[in-house]
Amino acid sequence: MKRQALLIAGLLALCLSPATHAVAKDKARLTVVIDTAQVGTPPDAAATAKELASVLSTQAERTPSREELAVADAKQSLSSFLKGMDATADKDGLKKARRLFKEATAALEEALAPVKGRFERPRPFRASAEVKTCQIKLPPSSSFPSTHAGTGTLFAALLAHIAPERKTELEARGLDYGWSRVVCGFHYPSDIEAGRTGGRLAAAALLNDPAFVKRLDNVAPELRGALGL
């Protein structure tokens, strides 16, 4: 009888373990709540046609060096953001910071996912064969809004929190980071602007969270060092 009771207890433990881990993982995941209505909606067909002309114009002016940067910017990471502004990106020294920014990126993408799913806007290279994309993997999701532009804006705001003296330069890098998606033919300008709005909302939410700010402040010395401060 005792042996049977132990066996039942063991089976119950196995059944409950996955659920317990899932709850623990869910509690650890960084999330942000934003007002997605502020992100806006995609323009109508007439405006989209004008935007397509803007994309083609941007591509006509694309230089090899700008395309190279756009390809590097395709990776949504703290390291790629820093490298694009000639900052030091020591992966080992920034391990905790990179993890935190990766969590922030995932939280932003999760917050913007309902908007992407709602509109399913085709990307420029789907709308016109004239669009010549960068030689990297084509993004499968819808065009509106641009999570890359959101990431650039988010990273700029988080870094400006610990390095306010570099705010102007960081914001310029954030803008450039998002515009790389137009350079590659992956987004329209309105996608970029909507993504930036999402990035600003996410940054505000995170910087209003004492637990997140504490984690950000803890890695501030390493980040300031990477920025040459």
Structural description of this entry:
The chain is an all-alpha fold and 229 residues long. The protein has helices at residues 2-28, 45-60, 64-72, 78-83, 95-119, 124-127, 147-162, 167-183, 189-207, 210-218, 220-226. The protein folds into two domains: 1-30; 34-226, Up-down Bundle (Vanadium-containing Chloroperoxidase, domain 1), CATH 1.20.144. 68% of the residues lie in helices and 0% in strands. Residues 1-22 form the signal peptide. GO terms for molecular function: acid phosphatase activity. One of its GO terms (cellular component) is outer membrane-bounded periplasmic space. InterPro entries: Acid_Pase_classA_bac, PAP2/HPO, PAP2/HPO_sf. Pfam families: PAP2.
Indicate the percent of residues in helices: 55-70%
CATH class of the largest domain: Mainly Alpha
Please tell me what the overall shape is.
globular
Overall mean pLDDT: 87
- Which strand-content bin applies to the residues? under 5%
Distance between the termini: 69 Å
CATH topology of the largest domain: Vanadium-containing Chloroperoxidase, domain 1
Specify Rg, calculated over alpha carbons: 21 Å
CATH superfamily (homologous) name of the largest domain? Phosphatidic acid phosphatase type 2/haloperoxidase
Structural class estimated from helices and strands: mainly alpha
Unreliable parts = 1-27
Keywords:
single chain, 229 residues, mainly alpha, Vanadium-containing Chloroperoxidase, domain 1, 2 domains, 11 helices, 68% helix, globular, disordered N terminus
